[in-house]
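About this split. The held-out portion is used to measure sequence recovery: a designer receives only the structure tokens and must propose an amino acid at every position. Recovery is the fraction of positions where the proposal matches the reference. Here is one held-out target exactly as it appears in the evaluation file.
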């Protein structure tokens, strides 16, 4: 492929980078590999991304948005129904997505795990997106008198996110094959729900 550098977009670079990462893996992929696939010099890519790390972060950010946040947004956008149940569905879906990609898209998941350790700002933005969406569901739960109004939605969302981190944080991926992992999540969720759910409405 020969691409005029003047018409090369960030999307095209990220598409090529993602393709190359899946082929060679995040550790072995270089900016030169991506440039070869696009038919341009590696210097051309540096005009869009100042470093390999910046390119990796951009690809990871897009992957997280499209593969994790977008499916979860559908749950939040369902404005009718039991908000407490939707909150549990949201967390369960977050876990399901992480487990799925750890198994089925291992190269991209590995890059995500690596970037998690290297790019604090990107990771915090991703976490905040999830917490904000959970906060919306919690707010609805309060309105429906299913969730204790004494808890501030953002604080409760953050607490739930970190309380369940073992089941969705990439650092714990090695535990996800445990035969008891699903049961352990159900037990944890039961305990958490007892702490914030209204039981006498």
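Reference sequence for scoring:
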């Amino acid at each position: 492929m020969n691409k005029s550098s003047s018409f090369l977009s960030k999307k095209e670079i990220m598409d090529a980078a993602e393709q190359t990462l899946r082929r060679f893996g995040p550790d072995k992929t270089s900016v030169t590999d991506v440039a070869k696939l696009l038919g341009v010099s590696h210097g051309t890519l540096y005009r869009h991304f100042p470093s390999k790390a910046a390119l990796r972060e951009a690809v990871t950010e897009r992957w997280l948005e499209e593969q994790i946040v977008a499916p979860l947004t559908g749950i939040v956008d369902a404005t009718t129904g039991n908000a407490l149940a939707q909150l549990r569905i949201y967390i369960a879906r977050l876990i399901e997505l992480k487990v799925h990609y750890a198994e089925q898209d291992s190269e991209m998941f590995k890059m995500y795990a690596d970037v998690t350790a290297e790019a604090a700002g990107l990771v915090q933005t991703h976490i905040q997106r999830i917490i904000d969406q959970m906060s919306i569901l919690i707010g609805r739960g309060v309105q429906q008198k299913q969730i204790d109004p004494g808890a501030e939605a953002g604080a409760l969302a953050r607490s739930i996110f970190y309380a369940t981190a073992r089941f969705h944080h990439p650092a714990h991926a090695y535990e996800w094959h445990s035969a008891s992992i699903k049961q352990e999540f159900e037990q944890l969720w039961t305990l958490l729900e007892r702490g914030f759910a209204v039981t006498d409405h």
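Annotator remark: Residues 52-77 form the longest helix (26 residues).
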